[in-house]
Amino acid sequence: MAKNDDKRFITPKSENPSQWYTDVILQAELADYSPVRGCQVYRPYGFAIWEKLKKLLNDRIIATGHENTYYPMFIPKSLLDREAEHVEGFAPEVAWVTKGGGKDLDEPLAIRPTSEVIIGVMWAKWLQSYRDLPYLHNQWANVVRWEKATRPFLRTLEFLWQEGHTAHAYEQEAREETARMLEQYSQFACEDLSLHVLNGIKSDSEKFAGAVETWGIEAMMPDGKALQSGTSHFLGQNFAKAYDVKFLAEDNTEQFAWTTSWGVSHRIMGGMLMVHGDDKGLILPPKVAPIHIAIVPITRGDNTDEVVAACQKLAAGLRRESYNGEAISVKVDDRDGFRPGYKFAHWELRGVPFRMEVGPRDIEENVAILVDRISGEKRKVDVNYETGSIGGVSIAKELDEFQAQLYERSRSEVESRIIEVASYDEFKDVISSGRGFVLAPWDGKASTEARVKEETSATTRVMAPQKPDNGVKCLFSGDVAQYMAYFASSY
RNA sequence: CGGGCGGUGGCUCAGUCAGGCAGAGCGCUACGUUCGGGACGUAGAGGUCGCGAGUUCGAAUCUCGCCCGCCCGACCA
Asked: Of the candidates A279, A203, A122, which has an alpha carbon nearest to the alpha carbon of residue A452?
């Protein structure tokens, strides 16, 4: 917490991004800690952001042909144990229920760390013919992973997410599904959250436990660390074989299904907050901002009622415009007893994209002051206080531009911080100084990756789409390079 | 899980070394004056000093155990 004798301020982001993040989450009233370590409460404003984000992603999932479902959170131990690699990967983080109704349970129940298992079990029950496929299911759920170190949104014991699970008759179809959903995630980050991410396949060591391939979107945080923000897994027939998900094919042979799974959690919301904010607090992309415009009345003496009435008129006019399919969301801050400057800071902290100021002079001149959260610049716009309509500017267009500007800022920031290096020494320097990601040729060997991690804390995040040129050597081993990989320390 | 720091009114903290009436500023409530970048006055409300044991005539303060948070590492989304 920033220390100040008489005001509640946040730590400047430039000074300490980590502390800034904690300060802003608490003070903007997005979330708070619960009595249980590592768990968080979503306060109304924070949950409103999550719900906006959730709707946008859900629309994409439904538009690509998936159906929402809900599977239970308890998984019997014997079922979890069936996929060896999967259970080994998750064992340290699983929470168990061992008592119910005051008695010890015959069999402990895992609280889902993810749902491949329970879904596989149910599919085995339903699936008979290739004609039943594909299964294209999604669910919005909470999951529990008993993490050691936690931070609001970025890593919590219980977290909210969406997990898609699909089963296909053909390998190629499952591979295409994996790629398709990765692309949806990437577009969601870019278009809806104004967040530039890097897409690619993960190395074996970074792969989901039980998957054949894991693909991911990686975001870059202000300290140069990577945040894995979404993953899409090609599971091959691994889970189908473990849970007996099979069907009769066209040629009357019994075959195992090819499955995929893909997930985005509330972590991506934390990443979005961390990337866009500044020293004054949050900056929200309009598509996920619960409030688009805060109107602050500037009153003087006994004209309060008159000015507030003008603000209400203006708000009603603004709400008649729509943005991204919904009415523009406007808040008139008519709280008594707070001066304008306090209200400005209040809404800036909360990341509201635009503010309008309406004072007696403005009403006389038929104008209002419009201020955007990125630049903080004030400009006059024409307002008809009889009808509440504004002239000269389209707020919907302003919001679109705000959204695009945020993305452009994120994109250029990330691109300028992807650094190609000539030597391992230079690599170490970039990683330890937090300058960004390193794009480097890598021989594809787990042993090399492990050594780099040991020595620098950096891991491969995803493989770049381009392959190394012929004859290019691995930066670390000198062997022939297999991939161009993005390296970074990660959250 | 290691290392460091911390937990006293809603918030930030003083008080702990050296045991002896629980404090300050901000915030909150009421009223008044204010209001174009974090206003001011007056009067109030608000505390099992993180939890549990122990030592003591007496514990926020000493001892032991535990819980929680932050920062930095290791591990994982």
From this structure: A203
Q: Evaluate if the CB of A303 falls below 7 Å from strand B.
A: no
A107 in any annotated domain? yes
| Judgement on whether residues A290 and A271 belong to the same structural domain of the protein | no
Quick check: A18 pLDDT over 90? no
| pTM greater than the 0.80 cutoff | yes
- Report ipTM (2 d.p.): 0.86
Q: Is the CB of A375 under 7 A from strand B?
A: no
- Is A198 within a domain? yes
Range of the domain at A314: 286-401
Q: How many domains does chain A have?
A: 3
A19 CA – B59 C1', rounded, Å: 35
The pLDDT tens digits for A229-242 are 999 999 999 999 99
Residue at which a domain ends, from A252, A276, A300:
A276
